[in-house]
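Moderator note: this is an archived Q&A kept for reference. The question asked for a predicted structure of one protein chain; the sequence and the answer are reproduced below.
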Amino acid sequence: MTAIPDHRITPARPDLAASHLRGTVDAAAFADPVAMRVVVPSAPLRREPRADAPLDTEALQGERVEVYERHEGWAWGQLACDGYVGYLPDDALRAELPAPTHRVAALRSFIYPGPSIKLPPLAALSLGAAVTVAAEHGDFAVLADGGHVFGKHLVPLGRTEPDFVAVAERFLGVPYLWGGKTSLGLDCSGLTQLALSTAGIAAPRDSDMMEAALGTPLPLGEDLTGLQRGDLVFWKGHVGMLTDPDTLLHANGYTMTVHREPLREARDRIRDKSFGAITSIRRLG
């Protein structure tokens, strides 16, 4: 048997693995997936089936999950959007739901029990969450489950944003949260992945995966010239994007926010105090 290539995106444990990995990994048993969807505004995906286990990422409402095991309140599975594997609360998932039709384009939008902004909201959806619109009622989209969302906060799935950096800029000031992917908190790669997704660009979840998969590397000179808006800047364990040739936007643990700052100042601080030197700057096609 060959070694598991990457535990983050390989649905395999010593006791259980995905059936398509039979003959590739060692496991005591194999299982076919059950397709489910996230039915809460966001669901934590944790490394272990415990509420206090590390948060690796979040799955937004409407995301599809391939579930291989459900046990004692936890579902072990793989996110369809980026392949991340882990444990989600079982009550956050449901099978046999209609496919989403729209996504939330606003930073955050409320779900109301009826077509009125004066009603107490039921929940709040973050940018990127997907919903199934069944009808329209005035200014509201009526969801398949009966909830109402302000229609101008939604766009059809497949409609892309022309400038993913502008999407990321909407998150300025949002708190940093390791593993987060919502407007309540998110990390560097979560911000980047989420912004890219609105432009129709699929990206892996973690910064090292992004660096290996996205764009083409630019010459990396000490003067950091020849750069442009949208270039991605990578360190070992960190990623940010340029809003202009001299300014970096990133979710970071230094300010504990999504923050914009001079690129050269960020480079020097990060090099000296945390992640070391820039490993690459990559430009998307």
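Archived answer notes: The chain has a mean pLDDT of 97.
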